[in-house]
Amino acid sequence: MEALHSRRTDDYRIQEAICESGDRDLFPDLNIPRSTIRSWIHRGMPDVISSDLAADDHAELIDQIERLRHRTALLGAVVALLVAVLRASKIQLDYERIPNGGAKRILLRAIDRTKNVLPLGAALRITRLSASRYHGCCRDEAGCDLDDQPSCHESSPLVSPR
Description:
Elements: H1 12-21, H2 34-43, H3 52-55, H4 58-88, H5 101-113, H6 120-127, H7 131-142
């Protein structure tokens, strides 16, 4: 079986530089075939479609990347602090009741806002809320009955009558 000959793809900026200068020996270290350079010069520059980012100055892009890296590090630090506070306070929503319907709505809205960037399972692990409790609260929210009702120990089947 014969090996397939792979085609080489050159950066369009190299082609642009050679076409604009007309210098066939502009990049001798790249070993571009003479026939390729001849066709580039003969055909001229092809139309190139690019994003707005490519039009920005290189220094501006580097500055923007650094700002975004700093912002990401800042947000990561905030999240790490919040997770540490949750762990230190030993709050586990699996075992704690949230009787206030308003507090439940705040938590459900916060989880819902993360759905575009975070899988639901990850959001539930972070909040330490079980999937069954979350979906139960979502069902309750649809029925607008998030407030817990006080239970009567007399009516509980686990308590024997006096």
